[in-house]
Design brief:
single chain; alpha/beta; about 20% strand
Length: about 270
């Protein structure tokens, strides 16, 4: 678990490493401001010091912990394993997802699906043709054959199901459809991994706040011996995606600042 760090200490840390030259007052104002803006939908996230936008790469330490050394070592020696990301969050998550998988296994085949036109266009323009396969589609109706993937990931997808005004029953129905489709496209022994949080839309509409992820997983044929995790993320953008994976399969995030969100949850369910 990360050690506690104050904003004053974080300012000193970032200044010492040359990430910023702001006064504390400027830094504090940016810290609050950057966590409220949807900069992951713009092309300037790399200019933002605070890693407040919840893209896939921000949660690299969590996904490494969810996988664990045994699964990482198994995955490392597979030939061209196929992995899918549901939803892309604009410019960054798709590329970060590809980099994460290539770190685990350079032969991994990367798939990303998104139904939002803006995200699809962004990914098509900003990623290399051989980096990943982009598919326009819906997470509740995946256009893939049964048993297609070794891993399926999603990063803050569930809170958006049905939109802000969805009824509880409708949002829960969509949540179950996602679990059902993921179970279908995963190979036997494959894993479904995700991070989720009651973010702003869920505070206004709590349709999915009481959605039972573990109960849904069991209903659709998953099992897990893993407890629910409290996600750990990078704090500073210049340190994002800096984890190293050793020959023993353990992910290590040495010399970087991390934080843990108390309200967020992270799961890995196994088919």
């Amino acid at each position: 678990m990360p050690e506690s760090i104050t904003l004053t200490e974080l300012h000193a840390y970032a200044t010492e490493r040359g990430y910023i030259d702001d006064t504390f007052a400027q830094f504090r104002r940016k810290y609050i401001d950057q966590r409220q803006k949807y900069t992951h939908l713009k092309k300037n996230l790399q200019e933002v010091v605070m890693c407040g936008q919840r893209t896939f790469g921000s949660y690299e330490p969590t996904y490494l912990e969810l996988l664990g050394p045994s699964e990482i070592l198994r995955f490392r020696y597979l030939t061209a394993p196929r992995c899918l990301l549901l939803g892309s969050l604009g410019y960054y998550s798709a590329s970060e997802f590809a980099n994460f998988l290539k770190k685990l296994n350079p032969s991994a085949r990367v798939y990303v699906i998104d139904e939002w036109d803006e995200s699809v266009n962004i990914i098509a323009q900003e990623t290399k043709r051989d980096e990943l396969l982009l598919v326009r589609g819906d997470a509740t109706q995946l256009p893939f054959a049964d048993g297609s993937f070794t891993h399926v990931y999603t990063n803050f997808l569930f809170h958006a199901l049905g939109g802000m005004n969805a009824s509880r029953n409708y949002a829960h129905m969509l949540g179950h459809k996602v679990f059902s489709e993921v179970a279908r496209v995963l190979e036997q022994g494959g894993s479904f991994l995700f991070v989720e949080s009651p973010v702003r839309t869920l505070r206004r509409n709590s349709a999915l706040l009481r959605f039972g992820y573990r109960q849904a997983a069991i209903k659709h044929g998953f099992h897990s011996t893993l407890p629910r995790l409290r996600p750990i993320s990078y704090i500073l953008t210049p340190e994002k995606m800096k984890a190293e994976v050793g020959s023993d399969g353990y992910g290590r995030c040495s010399g970087v600042a991390l934080e843990q969100y108390r309200v967020d949850v992270a799961y890995r369910f196994i088919k």
